[in-house]
Design a protein that fits this description.
This protein is an alpha/beta fold. It has nine helices and nine strands. It has a single domain (39-179, 212-253), classed as Rossmann fold (3-Layer(aba) Sandwich). The chain has helices at residues 25-39, 43-50, 54-66, 83-92, 105-118, 154-164, 184-203, 206-218, 222-231; strands spanning 15-18, 21-24, 73-77, 97-102, 123-126, 139-145, 165-176, 235-242, 247-253. Bound molecules: S-adenosylmethionine. Residues 32, 36, 78-80, 83-84, 102-104, 107, 128-130, 145-147, 150-151 line the site of S-adenosylmethionine.
């Protein structure tokens, strides 16, 4: 699989998807940063409202099926407000090690408040998932939850996650996915009309929530993502659909 959706035209910079728009490859990361900087303070509230609280169940299922156990080392990529880092922190206990990493200061700032509030001792680092500052084979599990679809090069991000996981360790991807056909008309209405409206009412920002809906549609479906994970060097990639495939959990093993 080549770098996501890129195209080269007449010596100009490669274009990549930013929702339904095409932007210069070098601009996408900045655009994504702007989206999350803008919504950081309302991010957790909006997650609960927009998913009717379902994201909590998806995340709990992700931690349970990852098989994380006490004493393990976990890397949470695109940790945002540290929802997954907190859950994995509880799973691995005080003898374990959890790193919450993100590219966005605003999101991580909110996350640090939450880590402190629940007494979770996760380490925090600002870094780009496409170039992780960790040694090879260090972690038992690298997880990315609702972050992969924002990355400029999903394949690079997955290769980096695979690199830092030990042989026999897991790369875990929780992400919006392709929902069942029968459910799509309702889902489209909800995503493109109601979500941006709620975004404007609650977070004062319709555009970021329109980007959310678009970025979900542009993200690879379950089968395609499994292929990208295999090409990143993972074995036995399997996925579980949740809520009619609105969300899917992919897990791959590092050989
Ligand atoms: C939708 S939030 C997900 C937050 C959290 N993981 C969750 O499940 O609630 C997506 C996060 O991905 C981060 N992100 C986007 N591109 C990134 C990159 N290249 N490297 C690291 N983090 C990135 C954003 O800053 C944002 O915090």
């Amino acid at each position: 699989m080549s770098e996501e959706n890129g195209r080269q035209s007449g010596g100009q910079e490669k274009q990549v998807d930013f929702g339904y728009r095409k932007v210069d490859e070098s601009r996408k990361e900045e655009n994504v940063k702007e989206v999350f900087e803008g919504v950081a303070s309302r991010y957790d509230l909006m997650n609960d409202v927009l998913s009717f609280g379902l994201h909590r169940m998806w995340k709990n299922t992700c931690v349970a099926l990852s098989g994380a156990s006490r004493g393990q080392k976990i890397l949470d990529i695109a940790s945002g407000t540290c929802d997954m880092a907190i859950r994995f922190g509880a799973a691995v206990g005080r003898e374990g090690e959890v790193w919450a990493t993100d590219i966005n200061h605003g999101m991580i700032r909110e996350g640090v408040k939450r880590l402190q509030a629940v007494g979770c001792r996760a380490h925090v680092a600002i870094c780009d998932c496409e170039a992780l500052p960790f040694e090879d084979n260090y972690f038992d599990i690298a997880v990315v939850s609702f972050g992969l679809r924002n990355m400029t090069h999903k394949d690079r991000a997955l290769r980096e996650m695979t690199r830092v996981v030990r042989p026999g360790g897991k790369v875990v991807v929780l992400e919006f996915s392709r929902c069942w056909k029968i459910f799509r008309p309702f889902y489209d209405l909800y995503s493109f009309k109601i979500m941006p409206w709620l975004g404007k009412k609650i977070a004062g920002d319709a555009d970021s929530y329109r980007y959310l809906a678009e970025s979900i549609r542009m993200h690879p479906d379950q089968q395609t993502l499994a292929g990208i994970m295999e090409q990143a060097g993972l074995d036995r990639v399997a996925w579980k659909n949740m809520t009619f495939g609105v969300c899917a959990l992919h897990i791959g093993l590092k050989p």
